[in-house]
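Minutes, project check-in
Item: structure for the 212-residue chain
Input as provided by the requester:
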Amino acid sequence: MPRETSSLADILADARVWKLKDASAAPPRPVWSTGRSSLDARLPGGGWPTASLVEVLIDDTGLGEVQLFLPALVASQRRTDGEAPWLVWIAPPHEPFAPALAQQGIDLGRLLVVRPASATEALWAAEQTLSSGVCAAVLLWLKGTDDRWLRRLKLAAEAGGALGVLFRPERHRFESSPATLRLLMTQGEHAPHLELLKVQGGRPGPIDLSVA
């Protein structure tokens, strides 16, 4: 089962989890494929950019937003130079289904689920985990935050080399954001619609998710 905690102190108290690595010894960070050629083709480098903040705007949860990142999460844990890096989910709206994640290839022993008491605590946890240097990806669900915190999360992801993914309601789409990549995911008649709103070095516009 994923490790779960309601106390951030429990996480940070484990020095093995949050010990910073020597930056000079860290291997180059890869770009992780999304698992969909139609989406990879529209992203610089052909996949999700690591050491960056990705913002996904959704009009409801449960649209398959996590599925967008599962291939990358699995790939990020396939390492041969030591323990697999940590994956952290902060304030997910639904309980992660451990058997399905394990079947996809997620190392549940290196997955933390954090349930903070407030949005401020969630943001603080995201900043700490993103900058820790031992997390491959941090997924954060929030109803809203300000530009100052978004910039802090982006800087933390860059410092720690992690992929930061922020899920926020669709109503924030017209607000400015420092995120490297912004996507809009909405419910269609038969399948979710995905649109690239902002992509540095790539092409904005709708993505056909029916193309593998």
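Outcome recorded: The mean pLDDT is 85.
No further action items on this chain.
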